[in-house]
Amino acid sequence: MTEGPQLTVAIMAAENSGTGRLVRNWLIHSVTQDPADMLVYGPTEAMVRAYVKAEIEPAIDARPEMAVTRRVGRAARDLEFKDFGRMWAQFLPATYNNLINKSASRIAIGGLDACDRSTGDPYALADIRRQTFGTQSRLLVESYPGLGGGDGPEASTAGIISLYANSDRRMWYWPCPHCNRFWAPYPIRNHGLMLEWPRGALPDEIRDAARMICPCCGWRIEDIWRSRMNAEGVWVGAGQRIDARGHIIGKPASFATAGFWISGLMSSGVSSGIGTLAHALDRAGRRWVDGSGTGMYRDTIAKKFGWPCDVDMDRLVA
Predict the structure, then answer these.
(1) How high does pLDDT run on average in the chain?
(2) In terms of CATH architecture, what is 8-143?
(3) What's the pTM?
(4) What's the CA gap between 209 and 269, in Å, rounded?
(5) Is 70 strand, coil or helix?
(6) How far is CA 268 from CA 15, 80, 225, 264, 284, in A?
(7) In the chain, ranges of CATH 3.40.50.300 domains
């Protein structure tokens, strides 16, 4: 958010993947290094207040340079509005009135696909409000793909998946700890992601036995390897490709938006990682098969895995 030619960043991600910390870190950098007024939007007032209490207030209290510049009085204690002297930040639900009546050079929208769309697209409304600031503006949008579906990002025309489809579409590639070949943890086209676990077993049994299957060599990858795989991973964007040994070939395509797709399997914020996700998919899959929980299956795929919610169950499991 602080460098590069692109003025918009779209992040399609699973819930609990740490994207909320990006806004927090952006605010910290702005206050301490590069002040500019900021608007932060979320789906509902309750969600915005919870986010400020959990992420923003502790960050402010932990940094003397932010506490010193923050003005005393009512504004300093207000969850909605933070006045730091050289800049301010306001945290609001993404309603039509809040979006059209506010302007700032830096705008963030969290949980885009959960925001109210009855009076307009929140992204489009926010995009207009920052255009006054031209190339000095930045817009960050993140969400799980709750409005998208089909085989890949280009299949949707709404929400975060649409923004990602019209971006430079960066995908994460990481190496198998057994064969060292690079692959991407997404269930589309030739990526061939599969999970393996004992179907219908008890939760603890699923968490202990769940494995990712490497599409290159078939090795069953335990959760303990994820942190090392992430440490050695790389982003590969549109116009580029990566060979099995991790060499990136080609130049990135030029797009106005930088797009990142964060799979739940990558997320360090998921406790017990693969096992927890496999258990959620097992429960949702059984409801999906008997026809009693289609919505639960879609929510699991979109929110916990960060994948288009119409991905077929058969493409995910071994």
Answers:
(1) 85
(2) 3-Layer(aba) Sandwich (3.40)
(3) 0.89
(4) 20
(5) coil
(6) 11, 29, 12, 9, 22
(7) 8-143
